[in-house]
Amino acid sequence: MVVLNKIYTRTGDAGETALGNGTRVAKHSHRVNAYGTVDEVNATVGLARQVAQGDMDTMLSAIQNDLFDLGADLCTPDMEQDAEREYPPLRMVAAQVDRLEREIDAMNARLDPLRSFILPGGSALAAQMHMCRTVARRAERLVVELAAAEAVNPAAVKYLNRLSDWFFVAGRIANDDGRDDVLWVPGANR
């Protein structure tokens, strides 16, 4: 259980923060940038939920919980030591990726195939889904960059890759099942 009875601690005033294993690192480290951007994705999902309803809101709620799991995973390095820890850290698992894939497939079954790229926009919810998508892609790039230097749970990378696809398809669903998608017209303003 998490207990937060004091919000400011002053321990980060010199530009460092503690990871999940207690190690202190610079706030600009690859790992902190990665999980910080995952937190940013979660905030964009919170904004999207202000206009989402029904099943879409339920799925977004599950994604927000997953994103906290992902942040917990990314803030705890040294995966090879997980089995030795008294309390193993929370790690992303394949079932979370599989759920996203099932949801993508179910949403995509309602859509006509794309014949053009689409512009971010349309309905308010679709615009929010595209914002979520682009921030998720940035988070994915940062996690992949981290994985080039340090061990990262492969399920974390897969989850972010699938998540941005999920937001893309959800944006089309939010545009009246793709009927209100804003199509890109190449060279339209030449």
Task: Give keywords.
corrinoid adenosyltransferase activity; 5% strand; two-stranded antiparallel sheet; Hypothetical Protein Ta1238, Chain: A; ATP binding; 190 residues; mainly alpha; EC 2.5.1.17
How are the SSEs placed, and which strands pair?
Elements: E1 16-18, E2 24-26, H1 30-48, H2 54-74, H3 94-108, E3 118-119, H4 124-149, H5 154-174, E4 182-183
Helix pairs in contact: 1-2, 1-4, 3-5, 4-5
Description:
By secondary structure, the protein is mainly α. It has a single domain, classed as Up-down Bundle (Hypothetical Protein Ta1238, Chain: A), CATH 1.20.1200.10. The chain contains 5 helices and 4 strands. The protein has helices spanning 30-48, 54-74, 94-108, 124-149, 154-174; strands at 16-18, 24-26, 118-119, 182-183. The strands form 2 sheets. A two-stranded antiparallel ribbon has the order 1-2. The chain has a two-stranded antiparallel ribbon with strand order 3-4. The termini are far apart. The model has no long low-confidence stretch (mean pLDDT 93). It is found in: Cytoplasm. Pathway: Cofactor biosynthesis; adenosylcobalamin biosynthesis; adenosylcobalamin from cob(II)yrinate a,c-diamide: step 2/7.
